[in-house]
């Protein structure tokens, strides 16, 4: 009987000890309240980029690649955009005579036209500089745009059909998909700094009767893009085409005058439409701008 009583007491004491340890463990364990669980979920969500957001651009400096460094041809390239609302699903780059243009296919059909520049610049410019969509066989909107350089941020404004306003985008035309043999290893000539210059320009092609004024005025923007003022010896030129983009004259007096983007120290293919004959004729020409003759415009 005494042994039984002693055994029962031992069991009771053991049970009490085990219960105390369990309570201490339970008290020491951190239990997440609904509020703290929400905080953890929120923190995890913030660490992941939202699906609709565009990843931030690389902070590594890019070295621009220009048309005179790439062999003539058509290449598939990637184009990144600063906005997920302006997603480019296909881009075909064409290089011809050191000039580049690209046909961009967008994922949606919300933009009527593009402008290579900012929305503010688009509002101040003439409508002939707007690039309207062309619908492809699948109903996608495509746009043929001039490309100043690859691996360089380029301003582009897009006109929303629904909102009826310009939206600013920043595009980068990447060279990563180009075949290595298509890119020249030679370093490009140093670009002139921002400002206005005069430069000797030569014209070849056509019938040989037309001339352009030389020296011509050359304007270099902060990003290195060069624009030349072309003054023809005839008043009958109604447009010029450069890299597939048509440009209207800025004045039509005794001489047809145009402002067009140009490349330097390279034979540059252009065309011009004349109405001097019974019907309009498009004539192919070659321009050459010699940087050795450049002088600041006074």
TrEMBL record:
It comes from the Bacteria. Residues 32-53 have a biased composition (Low complexity). Residues 28-65 are annotated as: Disordered. Residues 1-26 form the signal peptide. Keywords: Signal. This is Uncharacterized protein. It comes from Youxingia wuxianensis.
């Amino acid at each position: 009987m005494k042994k039984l009583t002693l055994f029962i007491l031992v069991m009771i004491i053991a049970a009490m000890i085990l219960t105390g340890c369990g309570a201490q463990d339970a008290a020491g364990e951190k239990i997440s309240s609904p509020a703290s669980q929400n905080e953890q979920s929120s923190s995890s969500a913030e660490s992941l980029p939202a699906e609709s957001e565009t990843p931030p651009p690389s902070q590594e400096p890019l070295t621009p690649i220009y048309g005179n460094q790439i062999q003539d041809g058509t290449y598939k390239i990637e184009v990144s955009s600063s906005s997920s609302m302006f997603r480019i699903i296909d881009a075909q780059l064409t290089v011809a005579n050191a000039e580049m243009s690209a046909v961009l296919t967008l994922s949606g059909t919300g933009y009527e036209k593009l402008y290579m520049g900012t929305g503010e610049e688009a509002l101040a410019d003439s409508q002939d500089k707007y690039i309207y969509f062309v619908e492809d066989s699948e109903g996608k909107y495509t746009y043929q745009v001039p490309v100043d350089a690859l691996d360089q941020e380029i301003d582009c404004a897009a006109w929303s059909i629904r909102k009826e306003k310009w939206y600013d985008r920043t595009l980068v035309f990447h060279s990563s998909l180009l075949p290595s043999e298509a890119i020249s290893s030679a370093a490009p000539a140093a670009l002139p700094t921002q400002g206005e210059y005069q430069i000797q320009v030569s014209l070849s092609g056509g019938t040989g009767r037309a001339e352009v004024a030389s020296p011509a005025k050359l304007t270099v923007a902060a990003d290195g893009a060069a624009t030349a003022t072309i003054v023809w010896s005839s008043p009958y030129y109604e447009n010029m085409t450069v890299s597939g983009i048509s440009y209207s004259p800025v004045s039509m007096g005794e001489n047809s005058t145009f402002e067009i983007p140009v490349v330097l120290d390279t034979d540059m293919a252009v065309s011009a439409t004349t109405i001097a004959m019974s019907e309009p004729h498009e004539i192919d020409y070659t321009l050459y701008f010699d940087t050795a003759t450049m002088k600041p415009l006074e």
